[in-house]
Write a structure and sequence with these properties.
By secondary structure, this protein is mostly helical. It has helices at residues 2-19, 27-61, 66-105, 113-140, 148-155, 157-171, 177-202. The protein has one domain. The protein contains seven helices and no strands.
């Protein structure tokens, strides 16, 4: 009973905090939209993580014998199209739409300095999204401009964005710029070492 009361009190306090500064949405509507926003961020990242893997498989399929290559490419292109246009693109659009609506309804969010960094990272993430669109367009036409190793490196860019954005949201202004950059650099080195070890293991 005490736990239920405390949880109810916490929700009420949260709604009162959210209500301050809102122009259009009710506090509960705001929370529902925020939950949906987070869900589509997750599905968007799922697409961003897996699409480059499919690109790698497409590039490697070009090295197979002709009969095997044609079958693999047809299957991989179909899988990539369903993932890209059925999940990744819709998730990116909905994420942007809800995120923009929440900020417009509560412009106070734009005052903290960490939000400017976060939005800059999100902008770069959309640039990365469009880079995958360009790569997909090339691979659908059987134009191979990058090796599978280069695409493996490009595949990890979304991971770096995810780590940066999550830590920034959680730690906010408490995050030191120096330690943040140092941590990101360390993660980058670990990812590159992992890719190097995988390449060596495959050989």
């Amino acid at each position: 009973m005490t736990f239920h009361y405390k949880m109810h009190k916490t929700i009420q306090d949260q709604l009162l905090i959210i209500d301050h500064g809102l122009k259009t949405f009710t506090p509960m509507t705001f929370l529902y939209l925020k939950a949906v926003h987070i869900i589509f961020v997750v599905t968007w990242f799922a697409g961003l993580f897996y699409m480059p893997r499919l690109f790698i498989y497409m590039v490697e399929a070009h090295e197979k014998p002709e009969t095997e290559k044609s079958v693999l490419l047809a299957q991989l292109k179909m899988m990539a199209s369903r993932l890209w246009y059925g999940i990744t693109w819709p998730s990116a659009v909905i994420t942007f739409g809800i995120g923009a609506a929440l900020i417009i309804d509560n412009p106070e969010w734009l005052k903290p300095g960490f939000m400017h960094i976060k939005l800059s990272l999100v902008f770069c993430l959309y640039v990365y999204h469009f880079s995958l669109q360009v790569l997909f367009g090339q691979l659908k036409k059987d134009v191979v401009k990058y090796s599978s190793q280069q695409l493996r490196l490009w595949n990890e860019v979304a991971t770096l964005f995810l780590i940066s954005i999550v830590f920034l949201i959680v730690l906010k202004s408490a995050l030191s710029m120096v330690w943040g950059v140092a941590g990101l650099f360390a993660v980058t080195l670990l990812i590159m070492a992992g890719i190097w070890m995988y390449k060596k293991y495959r050989k």
